[in-house]
Write a structure and sequence with these properties.
alpha/beta, two-stranded antiparallel sheet, 5 helices, 7 strands
Length: about 150
């Protein structure tokens, strides 16, 4: 199965992960700038690839949190676009609760799986990977569970 991981926001992180019975493989990542407009543009450019193979989309749900400069609603807008586009294109959505960075899946686990993306330029894509791995852990995927031992 192919999973598209999505960490929505002003800078949306995405990843494509292939998971079979034995392995979890990071196929591609991207940081999409420009909030909902950037995300919709990217989707339009990637639509053929997104619908070419069976895929499920794992994304972080929006929870209102007061930040340094107030509440940022851009993740909510990106999720709205994601829901509309995925529905139109017949793709399955899997919402994941915001887990707080590194609580469910630490950097060490990502490194053990060979899925860790270093550095600030990869921060949101790394979080998209983390959402996918958390989902696969909940599904008791053997390779992911082995990384926790």
């Amino acid at each position: 199965m192919i999973y598209l991981g999505c960490d929505p926001g002003v800078r949306t992180g995405i990843c494509f992960i292939m998971a079979d019975d034995d392995a979890v493989i990071l196929m591609n990542t991207k940081e999409i700038y420009g909030g909902v407009e950037g995300f919709v543009t990217w989707w339009g450019e990637a639509r053929t690839a997104l619908t070419a193979v069976p895929m499920q989309i794992v994304y972080e749900e929006f929870v209102t949190r007061e930040g340094k400069f107030g509440v940022d609603h851009e993740p909510e807008r990106v999720i709205g676009a994601l829901k509309a586009l995925a529905s139109r294109d017949g793709l399955t959505l899997i919402p994941r609760p915001p887990s707080g960075r590194k609580k469910q899946v630490s950097d060490l686990i990502l490194k053990r799986l060979g899925l860790y993306l270093p550095g600030e330029p990869n921060r949101n894509a790394r979080e998209a990977v983390r959402h996918c791995v958390a989902y696969l852990k909940a599904q008791k995927h053997p390779a992911v569970l082995a990384a926790f031992c």
